[in-house]
Task: inverse folding
C-alpha cells in the first residue's frame, strides 16, 4: 500500500509509515511542492496512494476526485508531530484494511470516522 504525505505533514511521519511496512512518498520526492490540492489528489491517484494531510480542504475536493480518492485527514491542534505519529500509528494498524476503496478517514484525538465514498 502506498501513501502520499501532503506538504503540511511533518516528514517524521514517513518513518512511522515505513515502520508499518508501507511505501510512503512526499511531494518533495516528486519535486511538486506548492501544488493545488486537486493536483495532489491526481498525483495520489496516479501513484495509487492514500493522501495523508492536516488540511481539511481535502475533504471538499471536487466530486470527480472525491469519488476516486482515499484521504486520511488528521484533525489535531496544536500540530504536535509526536502526537500525530501516535495517532497515525494506532489508526493505520486498525483501519488499513478499510482503505482500499475511495474514502475519507478523519482522525482526531477523540474520535475516528471513516466515510466510504460511493
Result:
Amino acid at each position: 500500500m502506498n501513501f502520499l504525505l501532503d506538504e503540511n505533514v511533518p516528514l517524521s511521519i514517513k518513518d512511522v509509515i515505513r515502520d508499518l511496512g508501507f511505501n510512503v512518498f512526499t511531494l518533495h520526492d516528486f519535486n511538486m511542492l506548492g501544488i493545488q490540492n486537486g493536483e495532489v489528489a491526481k498525483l495520489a491517484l496516479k501513484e495509487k496512494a492514500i493522501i495523508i494531510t492536516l488540511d481539511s480542504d481535502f475533504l471538499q475536493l471536487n466530486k470527480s476526485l472525491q469519488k476516486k480518492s482515499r484521504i486520511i485527514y488528521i484533525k489535531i491542534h496544536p500540530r504536535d508531530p509526536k502526537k500525530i505519529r501516535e495517532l497515525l500509528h494506532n489508526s493505520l494498524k486498525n483501519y488499513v484494511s478499510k482503505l482500499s476503496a475511495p474514502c475519507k478517514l478523519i482522525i482526531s484525538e477523540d474520535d475516528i470516522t471513516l466515510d466510504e465514498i460511493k
Remarks:
- The CA atoms of residues 53 and 73 lie 5 Å apart.
- The helical segments are 13-19, 37-46, 63-66, 81-95.
- The chain has one domain: 2-116.
- Residues 81-95 form the longest helix (15 residues).
